[in-house]
Amino acid sequence: MVQADPQMLAAAETVVSSLNLPRGSSEFGIYNPADGRLLATLPDLTPQEALDAVGQADEAGRRWACRTARERADALHAWYELITHSAEQIALLITLEMGKPLKESRAEVSYASDFVRWYAEEALRPAGSFRDAPDGAPTLMVRRAPIGLAVLITPWNFPLAMATRKIAPALAAGCPVVIKPSELTPLTTFMAVGLARQAGVPAELIQVISTTDAAGFSEALLTDSRVRKISFTGSTRVGKILLRLASEQVLRPSMELGGNAPLIVFDDADLDRAIEGTYAAKMRNGGQSCIAANRIYVQDGIAEAFVEGLTEKMRDVVMGDGLGPGVGLAPLISHQAVSSVGRLVEDAVQRGASLLTRGEVIDGGEGSYFPATVLDHVPAEAELASTEIFGPVAAIQRFTDEAEVVQRANATEFGLAGYVFTENLDRALNVADSLQTGLVGINQGVPSNAAAPFGGLKQSGLGREGGGEGLEEYQETRFYNVARRETERGN
Ligand code: ADP
Which atom belonging to ligand 1 lies closest to the Cα atom of 181? Predict the structure, then answer.
């Protein structure tokens, strides 16, 4: 197994020590998933302390809402520049606390900063409109106002991108935020918010709450009348709890929840492109992504060649510390994740799936490693066909015809991402239309983009992040009906 490059590791640890983290009477630790070592400690804030932060954000938010769109955009542009300037340091930090290979952390910084740049630009787009009523008499003025204080709860798998995808549109719209990063990866949020402050965003406007009491936090904040919005990315299970809490004050919810993405490879697909795309859709972040290809459906005619090509690629991946040279598969987030992925693989094999490769099972010491695994002929009743795998396991099923595969692909309560590989444009678009998912990758495995509305159908969520739609999530729509009396006209 590949170890961390000592120079990279030293550079990453320097980033942590330069963070100027807050201190508290009660603290919790943040650990490196590659070796289990303690990286830093943070205050374990109580629900009452989080409510105090709500008060501060609320005050700062009143002033921020009065700033011009240009001023808000300028602050976001400056933040974008600082993130770009510190990209390498942030990437090192992401790998250190989250584990993913450094190359992927760099890609995350680029993707994450794109949201800041996009919303810096979007902040200036005229939001309101005038409309004529059908009866001609009044003039309707439609306005967009900031929704108010937003509570943001982010997961550990993309610690920077999930934060900027929420904070940037909130600030662009004129809202204050209280963000609770995952207790597993909070350091990246502290660094990013530190840069926002350096960029001129008022210090109180973004409150970061470090806590291990996620339930206490959400119970206190989502029932507080100063809060107007909740944006959450995480599991469907927790999303449902938050939706129930959000009903108390009728908060506007944005929910990016679990997925169970189908990926369909047709006989007429370009083989290399299908293998590359599937590999990317499966292996990005070691499979720990809510849009990861969870069920891979391959048509009979291309199946042998595809399975062979994908298995070879999976077998070749270099596993090790995300700061090690050439590493393509880093540790999973925790030992618990390793055992849950292992359990899903065992279940599939017991039910008849064939295990084509399972890499080298290594003893990573305190690191939480799981090798790249390919399963073929996975039966539909295997647990991993209906559960998010969240690990580097390609689970392949075979199919014969288009209508059948679409029906199998849609046989899930989730509907976040889907993928289709075919060189036939009609088929690509017809299948994309038939898939019950919020986004579809056509001949490609990494569909997300800051300019596009990301989000799920069915139990995968509510609302969209990215694009103009992502800004509207933080805006209230209001209208004024202006009465007009006839006057003597010149014409
Ligand atoms: P994952 O399985 O990806 O960790 P979770 O939904 O458990 O997904 O966690 C995503 C985020 O939700 C994390 O920030 C976590 O701390 C937070 N979280 C977990 N439980 C709750 C809860 N009851 N209320 C609010 N946030 C929660």
Answer: 14
Of 277, 340, 331, 336, give the one whose Cα is nearest residue 309.
Answer: 277
Task: Of 266, 297, 294, give the one whose Cα is nearest residue 281.
Answer: 294
Ligand 1 pocket test: which of 30, 42, 153, 231 has the largest number of ligand atoms within 8 Å of its C-beta? 153
pLDDT at 361: 57
Closest CA to 166 of 181, 183, 185, 144: 181
Q: Which of 65, 40, 18, 55 is nearest to 207 (CA)?
A: 55
State the Cα–Cα distance between residues 401 and 341, nearest whole angstrom: 30
Distance 223 CA to ligand 1 centre (A): 17
* Model pLDDT for residues 397-406, shown as the tens digit of each residue: 999 999 999 9
Look at ligand 1, atom 2, and give the residue with the nearest C-alpha: 235
Q: Does pTM top 0.90 for this prediction?
A: yes
DSSP track, 6-46: HHHHHHHHHHHHTS-----SSEEEEE-TTT--EEEEEE---
Query: Which tens digit of pLDDT belongs to each residue from 328-375?
Result: 999 999 999 999 999 999 999 999 999 998 865 566 678 899 999 999
> Pick from 82, 215, 219, 226: which is nearest to 160 by CA?
82
Between the CA of 110 and the centroid of ligand 1 the distance, in Å, is 25
Tell how far the Cα of 28 is from the centroid of ligand 1, in angstroms.
Answer: 16
Where helices occur in 208-296 by DSSP H, the ranges are 214-221, 236-248, 271-283
Query: What is the spatial distance between Cα 208 and Cα 204, in angstroms, rounded to a whole number?
Result: 10
Which of 182, 232, 241, 288 for mutating ligand 1's site (highest number of atoms within 8 Å of CB)? 182
Measured from the Cα of 153, ligand 1's closest atom is 14
Q: How confident is the model at residue 296 (pLDDT cuts 50, 70, 90)?
A: very high
Bridge partners (DSSP) listed for residue 399: 299
Q: SS3 string of 172-187?
A: HHCCCEEEECCCCCCH
SS3 376: strand
- Domains (range + CATH), the chain: 6-257+460-477 (3.40.605.10), 261-442 (3.40.309.10)
For residue range 174-183, what is the model confidence (pLDDT) as tens digits? 999 999 999 9
Distance from residue 443's CA to the centre of ligand 1 (Å)? 32
Query: Rounded to whole angstroms, how far apart are CA atoms 207 and 58?
Result: 10
* Residues labelled as active-site residues: 256, 290
- Lining ligand 1 with CB less than 6 A are 153-155, 180, 182-183, 214-215, 218, 234-235, 238, 241-242
